[in-house]
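Teaching note: in complex prediction, the entire set of molecules is handled at once rather than each chain in isolation. The prompt given to students was simply: 'Predict the structure of this complex.' The entities are:
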Amino acid sequence: MTLEGTRVLVVEDEAIIAMTAEDMLEQIGCTVARVAATFAEAMAAADEGGFDVALLDINLNGTPSHPVAERFLALGTPFVFATGYGSAGRGEEFGDVPLVAKPYRIEALAAAIEAALGSHREYRSG
Amino acid sequence: MPELRSFLSGGGQTAELIRAKNWAATPLGDIRTWPQSLRSALSICLRSAGPSAIFWGDDHLFLYNDAWAAMLGDRHPSSLGLPAREVLSDIWETLGPQFRTVIENAEAVNRVDALLVRNLGGATFDSYWSYSMLPVASEDGTIGGVLAQARNTTEKIMRGRRDALMLRLADRLRLVSDEEELLAAAVELLAGEMDVGRIGYAEANEDKGVISVLHCAVRHGMRDVCGEFPIPKFGDSINDDLHAGRVIRIEDKATDKRLADPKVRWRYDAMGVESALVVPIVSGARCQAMLFAHHNEARIWTAHEEVLLRQATEQIWRELSRVRAETALRGSEERYRRIFEQAHDLILTADLDQIITDINPAVAAAIGAPREEIVGRSIRDFVSEKGFDQTTGMLREKIEHGGTTHHTLDVVARSGRMMQWEINSTLTQDKEGRPIGLHAIARDVTERRRAEERQRLLVNELNHRVKNTLALVQGLALQSFKQGRDLDEARAAFQDRLAALAAAHDMLTRENWEGATLAQLAQEAVGHHNAREERILIRGPDLVLSPKAAVSLVMALHELGTNAAKYGALSAPAGRVTLGWRVAEGERLQLEWRERGGPAVTAPGQRGFGFRMIERALASDLAGSARIAFEPEGLVCGIDAPLAEAAPRAAA
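The expected output is the structure of the full assembly:
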C-alpha cells in the first residue's frame, strides 16, 4: 500500500512540531492539505474536508481534542492520534484509533496513517 | 397417790421438777395439801402447748410449763415457786396493777403486742408480748390465782418494723445520686430506729490496711469519728471476724475477754465505746465495708438490731455501688462526650431504620446545618439514591455478618456540594447482643481525593509536556541538520536553538509558568548582542505574554538575532536593530524588528528554517500574522496578534 498523494490534515498547536510532521509526511509521499493549530480551526477543517486522513494532537494548547475526534468519527473521517501522554490519554471510546507517539518516528507515523486508512477502508467495504 | 399423778402426769420436764421440789418449806406448803382448784389450773397449764403459767396465792407464786421454761432461759428452774414481784421485778410496775385487777375484780386481762421494757442482767431492751391473765377461783369462791398465757411477739413486731424501715431506706436511697447524701440519709434513718451513741458506715481496704469512716450520726455525748485510720487491732478474733464477714458483738467492754489486752482496750476507751455491734460486708475475700453501732454503756444487742444492721449494710453497700457506678459512668460519659464533641472526625449514630440519632459538631459543620436539622432525619436525605442503596447494603452486611464496614460514600452538603466520606461503621448492640443501631466514624476525603486527582493530572501533563518538548527538540534537530548544510554550522545552529529553548523554559519556570514580560523575553533572546554596546534598542510597554507565546517569541527573536549577526545589521559595526512593540487599536499587539545600517540586503533564494519558523510559529502560537520583509535598509519583521492570545492578562 502506498501513501502517495494522500492528503493529510495536521492538527498541532506547536508550530515547530507541525513543521516536523509536515516534512515527515512529505517524505512518505503525503501532501499536507492543511495545518490547524487551534481547536476552532480543527473543528472548521473537519467540517470543510478536503483531506483523506487527519493527524490529531490529543491536546491542543491545554484543551483535550476529543470533541474533534468525535467529529471525525461522526463524519467517518479516518484519523490518527498524536500524543505525548501514552495510550492512557486516548479514552475508551477511541480504542480503535491508531496512536502515534511523540516525538515521531517516521515509520511509526506511516504505519499509523496506513492503519487509519486501512481500517477505514475495511469499515467502508464491510 | 393417784390424784398427784393425775394432775402432774403428762406435764413434761417442768412437771417432774415440780413433783420433785420440796414445797413444804414454801408458802404453798406440801404439794399433797394443794387445793383442787390449784391442781386443776396447774393441770391445764402444764398440758398447754404454748407458754402458760400459774401465779398462785397472795404472793402470786410462779409455776409454769415447759414452753414458758424455754422463755426463761437460765432463770429456769430457779424461778419456780418465786413470787411474781420478784420474777417480773423489771416489769412489775406494769404487771402489778394488772394482777390486782384480775384478782380483786375477777376479771381477765388481755393484751396484744404490748410493749414491756425489760431489764435483765443490767441490760434494758424492748420486748413485745401478747398475753392473757385469767382469774382462777379457789374452793372458797375467792380468786386464788392467775392462769397466764403469753407469747413473745417481739420478733414479729421487730420484723414488721425492720420491713417498714428497709422499705423507707430503699425508697429514700433509690432517689439519691450523691454518695454523701446517700450515706447521710441511710445513717440518719438507722439512728432514728436505734437509740445508740454512735452509728456509722466505714469502708475498709485490707490491702492498704486502712479503714475510712465515711459518715456517722452521734448522740449521748459521743463524738464523730469520721476519717481514715490504719486498721487497728480490734481484739482477739475480732479482726478475723471482720475479714470473714462475721457479725461482731461487744456487749460490755469491761467484761469482754477479747478486749483484755490493755493496748486493745485503750482504743475503745479512746472512742468512748462500752458496747459495739459491727456488721461487715465481704466481697472478693476482703472486708469491704461495715456498719457499726457504738454505745457509751454496756448493752445487750438484740437480734432485731443485728438483723436490722445486716440488712441495712447490704442495702447501703448495694446503693453505694450503684451511685459510684453512676458517678463513674457520668464521668466517663462526659469524657467520651468531650471527645465526641471535639473530634475532627465525623461521628454519627443512627438506628436500624437509618434515622440519625446523634451527630458530633464536625458532622454539622460538614453538612452545613445545625444539629437539630440533622438529627431525626434519615441518612437518605444526605446521600444520593445510589449512596442510600450503598448504606442499606452495608447495614445488611453488618447485621448478617457483623464486624465493621469500610466504604466511601458520596454525601451531599446542604449547599448541594458533593463530599466524599470514608466511613467505618459498626453496629451498636444491647446487653443481649441484639443490634439496636449503628455508629459510624467518617473522614471527609473530598479534598484529598481532589488533590490526588490533581496530582494525577499534573503527572500526566508533565509527561505530555516533556514529550512535546522532545518533539520540539526533534523538530529543531531535523531542521538544523537538513541535507546539504555544513555540519559544523548546523551543529552550532542546533546548539544555539536548544540554548534559546532552554532559556525560554528557565524564564517561564522562574515566573512559575504564568508567562513573562515581553521586555524580559527580548532581553533573554537577544540581550547577548548588547553585551558591549546597545545595538538592539528594546522599547515597549510592560506586557505579560502567555507561556506558549513567550516560548515562540524567544525562539523567533533568537532566529532574528542570529540571522542579523550573520548576515544583517549586526554583522556590520554601524548596524543597529530597533525592537519595539505597542498595543494598537482593537486590542492588538504589534511588534516590529527593524534592522538598519547593515550590508545591502537581498532576499535569500530559499527561505531557511529560521524564517519559516518565525512566520509559522509566531502566526500559530500568537494566532496572528508574522511577515518578514527584506527592505533596502535592512530586514523588517512585523508581528500582529490579538492581545487576548498573546497577552491574556493585558487584554481587557
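Point out the following to students. The mean pLDDT of chain A is 85. The beta strands of chain A are 7-11, 31-36, 53-57, 59-60, 63-64, 79-83, 99-101.
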